Amino acid sequence: MNDKTISFILKENLLNLELKDEASKTDLQSIICDVLNVDRAYLYLYGDKVLIDIQVEEIEKKIFRYTQGEPLAYILGYKHFWKQKIFVNQHTLIPRADTETLIEAVLNDYPNKNEALDILDLGTGSGAIAIALAAEYPNSNVIAVDFSKEALKQSEINANQNNVDNIKFIESDWYENLAKYKFDIIVSNPPYIDIEDSEINDEVKKYEPHSALFANDGGLADIELIISKAQNFLKNSNGKLYIEHGYTQSEVIYKLFANAGFLDIRVIKDLNGRDRVSIARK
Length: 282
Ligand SMILES: C[S@@+](CC[C@H](N)C(=O)[O-])C[C@H]1O[C@@H](n2cnc3c(N)ncnc32)[C@H](O)[C@@H]1O
Prior knowledge:
Blueprint: H1 6-16, H2 22-36, H3 40-45, H4 53-67, H5 72-76, E1 78-81, E2 84-87, H6 100-109, E3 118-122, H7 128-136, E4 141-146, H8 149-161, E5 167-171, E6 185-188, E7 193-194, H9 202-207, H10 210-213, E8 214-215, H11 216-219, H12 221-230, E9 240-244, H13 250-259, E10 263-269, E11 275-281
Parallel strand pairs: 3-4, 3-6, 4-5, 6-9, 7-8
Antiparallel strand pairs: 1-2, 9-11, 10-11
The structure holds S-adenosylmethionine.
Binding site for S-adenosyl-L-methionine: 123-127, 146, 174, 189
GO molecular function, one term: peptide chain release factor N(5)-glutamine methyltransferase activity
Domain Methyltransferase small: 113-194
């Protein structure tokens, strides 16, 4: 029998393990909330509550993983993205807040949520983008593509968990199995990190799927392919392609769009004011 209270576990770990900053504190609270299945307010109201042994063990196991550098989303098994709870595993990239820039850009361009759009999400991973758009445009048909069977399995689970039923999942190497389809909108957050990029932190490299992150040719190989073939899969001159990319890549991407004959090329900044999503019209 232990006598550890919620407050004690929080304090002990923040002090002993040098997890002293606000973000770490919030993450530890998330771990405790998850194990106890309570919300954050509970931790403040019932900080004196003594936990039972299995709760303490589970919390401490997860905190240990956290101190080893494992991302919180993998420890919890999910991440909130847009209005959804997206479950993740080692086969899926953890959805990033910056990717919500892409969702906002589409919503800005297509304000009528009743529209019946044909939307393609290339490299769907956890399904985060496809599910957010399918939920925002319930009359639309979304096709979500990935070449990873495991990622597709997880994205289908996420669609079901979020009660979204207007997505078709297709295993495909980019456009390979899409010959019979045409779209109003193509969106993609493809792998765009240069393998040589020294700014990428070790945890990302260690825990997240490399095939979701890294691309050849300075990180541009997949983007180049997606842009060069997109015209064939866009329905008409209103068809648009939205690409998430690294913040230093927007100039090259502008040229790739222009060379492929795209019009109205523009770039949108992310939450940190950095170039993040490029958009162009057929
Ligand atoms: C950066 S992740 C994006 C995941 C998700 N869309 C998101 O925004 O969180 C890129 C995704 O592209 C997929 N991918 C990489 N190469 C691919 C290819 N040749 N064909 C289809 N999908 C590919 C990866 O498996 C991964 O799920």
